[in-house]
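Example (one chain per record):
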Amino acid sequence: MAVAVAVAGVTTTNRSCCLASAHRRTLHRHRHPAPPRASGAVEVRVCTNRTCARQGGREVLAALAGLTPPRVDVDSCGCLGRCGAGPNVAASVGGSIAVFGHVGTAARGAQLLEHLLGAAEFNAAAELAALAAREKAEAALEKGSAAEAEVLLNEVFGLNACGGMHLVYRSRSKTRLAIGDISGALEDAEEAIRISPRFIQAHLLRGDALLAKGEYCAAEDAYADALDLDPSIRRSKSFKARMERLREKLVSATNP
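Predicted structure:
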């Protein structure tokens, strides 16, 4: 029997739901496999199939990914049924699975997370304010206003948010690289990795900061760590550009 529950305008129905290694230089240190996901992880799956996609499923997926703390695993999924009542979101907490409907905005996504995690861990209002500040900072950085972006990102730390902080440190690392604060950029990338060890962009930014510091072998290690997590990035233009910059630096260092 289906049981419907209202969560701040979001409806839910209990139902069943199915939720190569990089090349290494011989002088590099031995690598350990990526750490497993944290115990007590919560799984959230957002339907991005046709109907839910038209109702904003992809935008909700992006918002949830930017709001969640590391123990919440957010990803897309196929149709969850209940078409027309979306965007639909499936959540698995402690082995209990439920499907929530009408999760059509970032605000409703935040309310859903507060419901799943509890207000003591996740304050929807604070998390939404942090998300808005980070997005505003990233827009400023895209326009070339790195100093403004850093000010906005620094303000996020006063909001007592817990979700998406690896993204805040990622953004501030990019910002600090842009203004020439290489040590600060490296610290932020490493903090993002501490919060979310499987966060590929943080490993890439750590490599960028190390490259800027002239620590070329360490930079290559950082890029390889990202490649370990997702070998497919080898084909991306940005990764190829990083490898080319690294190669040029290594050649220059070898032939001064």
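Caption: The chain has two domains: 4-18+40-122, 125-254.
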